[in-house]
Amino acid sequence: MPISMRSVYVITGLLVLVVLVSTGAYFGVFGSLLHLSAAEQTLLFTVINLIATVIFALVATINMLESKKVRGEMVRPHLALEPAFFEYDMKTGDIVGFTCLNLLNGGTVARDVEIDFCCSGKCTALYAASVGTNDRVQIWNGRFSELGSNVTTKVRYKNMFDKSLEEVFTINIDSIRKANRKFVPVLNSANAK
């Protein structure tokens, strides 16, 4: 897990404090600063400034790297599987499955999208030139029983900077059944009233 920026600043501040206290203790617990010659005081303050400059450069470098991560996350497509068109049990009214599976993009445009959809031991290779923000690509439709026990979708695509990325999505239908979980529909907040 990456260290948060707040932790970096706290650690850096403590490090600066330790360095300053150590330097002061080395030169006689700050008391002898008054008795140093001008050349010695200049050397001491030069060392302290050098240490502070190195620490600030370190903080700036870490901040730059974190900014680069955030910028990369902002231009990354955010893909997810979206079941749709649910099958209901007529007696209980519960959702027992779905008849359509979409690949949804909630981020920036994904280009040159290659989709490998596998279920019931069969794989289908699909392609989309691009998937824009809030676009859906239908990757499967049929009866829910045709999906089998596990669904795997591997997606390879490029972001807006032409960087190749890959994600794998799975739906373990057996584990959902064993845990007695019920499917619930996800409503689009723009359409909900």
Specify the number of helices.
3
Per CATH, the class of the largest domain reads Mainly Beta
Low-confidence stretches: none
Order of helices and strands: HHEEEEEEEH
Instruction: Trace the largest sheet across and list its strands.
Output: 4-3-6-7
The total tally of domains equals: 2
How many beta-strand segments?
7
Question: Overall mean pLDDT score?
Answer: 82
Secondary structure: elements and pairs:
Elements: H1 5-26, H2 38-74, E1 79-88, E2 95-105, E3 110-119, E4 122-131, E5 136-141, E6 150-158, E7 164-172, H3 173-178
Antiparallel strand pairs: 1-2, 2-5, 3-4, 3-6, 6-7
Helix pairs in contact: 1-2
How would you sum up this structure, described in words?
Helix content is 34%, strand content 34%. With 193 residues, it is an alpha+beta fold. It has two domains: 5-74; 79-178, Immunoglobulin-like (Sandwich), CATH 2.60.40. The longest helix has 37 residues, at 38-74. The protein is elongated. The two termini are 39 Å apart.
